[in-house]
Amino acid sequence: MIDRFFSQTRPKQGEDAETIKLGRIPSHIAIIMDGNGRWAKKKGLPRVAGHREGMKVINRVVEKADEIGVKYLTLYAFSTENWKRPKTEVDFLMKLPERFLGNELPKLQKNNVKVRVMGDKNLLPSHTSRAVDKAVEETKHNTGIVLNFALNYGSRHELMQAVRTLCEEVEAGKRSALDIDENVLSERLLSSGLPDPDLLIRTSGEIRLSNFMLWQLAYSEFWFTDVLWPDFGEDDLMEAVHIYQTRKRRYGGV
Ligand code: V07
Fold this sequence. Notes:
This protein has helices spanning about 35-40, 45-70, 85-95, 95-110, 125-140, 155-170, 180-185, 235-245; strands spanning about 5-10, 20, 30, 70-80, 115-120, 145-155, 200, 220-225. The chain is an alpha/beta fold.
């Protein structure tokens, strides 16, 4: 019975054939790409070398996710807390969106990828927000996988802003407090239009959410791995999806 939901994907070089169920692919995967600095330190390199290497991994993961039928991929690129890092590191990080898009936008276009960004854009350097706006604009009609970058994102700030907007609407007499329900609040979040993530992946052995999509991850499956983000590969993604498929989601029911 279950067998016909299994498919063999072609083994790539150096990779064993994996078996995944076609039936239950997570529609939305969110990833906390952690461990870039630690990866660099282990190799005796500056932290920024880890960030650069971490950026190279993104393509592989997007392509693999797309290949197995994932529809939305959200990547935590920069948190509102990351401003506390040394200025040189922050300056380097703020160049990565442009660098990534400069290199990859043609390929993203070719692959019909739709780029989205969620986070407070006001605090970004103008060169960063310009590059990001351009990519979002140029890919807005694409109908393939949605690649959503959380950039200067913090979940409590996002929730607070949503509450503020709704309160203003109530104060202005535009709505009654009584018609605020979960859907109304969801639509005010930066993830509006995206389904909640089915699966959260965090790399590098940290077992926390770190202010990432607190509302949206309420019913998601979590998968943590000790693998550092620059070492993360297609096989790790497949393992996460495989484990996701072995878990039964109940949404609080029985
Ligand atoms: C960043 C590389 C990946 C590992 C995690 C930290 C460092 C891609 C982007 C990006 C962001 C927005 C966008 C296109 C690309 C990025 C930052 C850091 C700040 F529209 N990688 N990456 N942004 N890292």
